[in-house]
């Protein structure tokens, strides 16, 4: 057998293995799935499968990642949106945060600016929004009522997926630039706040009467969801034996959520592109291994995890 023929066989074998895997996961071949390098994705999935649940950890954004972006023709509220939609919040709060969004939201998704250039604007946005919120004299017991009154829908299949991770002891880090108190309440009401879940987010600080007086710790925004947000935590160190990662996010900044993991062996990044497809698809394909366009389900992540365990 000549060397050239031997190399050809190896190449054909790799191609056939890739095709076999993609057929074994039919969810990867649907119109909403965009994969820039299918052979690379196949290799990562093979590593995840070989490692099994014992080597796996999952990192996910919450707003419009675990939760849907839209449902029955309506945009689903984010953690901050739950506040804006609540009858418990004064109109002046809603007006002021709407004005902030009109200023800073276009900057967050500006294609011409780098993340570093956007960073100070995001700090301004979140800091101003939190300051306005604190002035509303909210109390802790109101959070449960707010979440119950506001429609926050998780992606189809989220409950099953999160329960499966829990049953197999796979740690789930929910990394959010929203409000942790509201996020956790949503997950509790949806029966998805299991013991394997750790939330890193912005948490309210209360006085002895349960009144919100500020926020704890460092500010977490869209472009600070990386190792700097949990620099005082030993979370990743405790999971240092879990070298395989599935990451899920919906923003450009979310692709960096696993940056604090020491020595990862295989990282599969799944990006949910919910809007601006024509403008952002190419960018998302550069950042994420798999891009799911306007997909309101957890079908693809679930299908991949079903291959692992």
Automatic annotation (TrEMBL):
Describe the reaction catalysed, as an equation. a ribonucleoside 5'-phosphate + H2O = a ribonucleoside + phosphate
Where in or outside the cell it occurs: the entry states:
Cytoplasm
Q: Which InterPro entries match?
A: HAD-like_sf, HAD_sf, Pyrimidine_nucleotidase_eu
- The first-level EC class reads hydrolase
Can the keyword Hydrolase be found in this entry's annotation? Answer: yes
Q: What are the UniProt keywords, alphabetically?
A: Cytoplasm, Hydrolase, Magnesium, Metal-binding, Nucleotide metabolism, Nucleotide-binding, Signal
Q: What is its main location?
A: cytoplasm
- So what family is this one in? Belongs to the pyrimidine 5'-nucleotidase family.
Quote the protein name from its UniProt record. Answer: 5'-nucleotidase
* Lineage, broadest ranks: Eukaryota, Metazoa, Ecdysozoa, Scalidophora, Priapulida
> Which gene is this protein's source?
LOC106804837
């Amino acid at each position: 057998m000549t060397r050239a023929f031997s190399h050809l066989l190896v190449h054909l074998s790799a191609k056939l293995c890739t095709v076999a895997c993609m057929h074994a996961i039919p969810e990867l071949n649907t119109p909403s799935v965009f994969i820039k390098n299918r052979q690379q994705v196949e290799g990562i999935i093979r590593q995840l499968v070989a490692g099994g649940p014992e080597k796996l950890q999952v990192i996910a954004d919450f707003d419009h990642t675990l939760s849907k972006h839209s449902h029955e023709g309506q945009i689903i509220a984010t953690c901050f949106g739950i506040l804006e939609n609540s009858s418990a919040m004064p109109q002046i709060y809603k007006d002021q945060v709407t004005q902030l969004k009109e200023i800073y939201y276009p900057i967050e998704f500006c294609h011409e600016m780098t993340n570093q250039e956007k960073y100070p604007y995001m700090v301004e946005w979140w800091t101003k929004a939190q300051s306005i919120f604190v002035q509303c004299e909210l109390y802790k017991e109101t959070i449960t009522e707010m979440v119950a009154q506001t429609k926050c829908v998780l992606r189809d299949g989220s409950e099953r997926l999160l329960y499966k991770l829990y049953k197999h002891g796979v740690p789930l880090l929910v990394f959010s630039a929203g409000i942790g108190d509201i996020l956790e309440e949503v997950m509790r009401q949806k029966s998805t706040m299991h013991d394997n879940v750790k939330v890193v987010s912005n948490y309210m600080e209360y006085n002895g009467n349960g009144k919100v007086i500020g926020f704890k710790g460092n500010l977490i925004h869209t472009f600070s969801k990386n190792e700097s947000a949990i620099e005082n935590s030993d979370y990743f160190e405790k999971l240092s034996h879990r070298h395989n990662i599935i990451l899920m996010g919906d923003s450009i900044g979310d692709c960096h959520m696993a940056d604090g993991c020491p020595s990862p062996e295989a990282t599969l990044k799944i990006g949910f592109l919910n809007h601006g497809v024509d403008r952002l698809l190419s960018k998302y394909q550069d950042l994420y291994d798999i891009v799911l366009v306007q997909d309101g389900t957890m079908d693809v992540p679930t299908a991949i995890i079903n291959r692992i365990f």
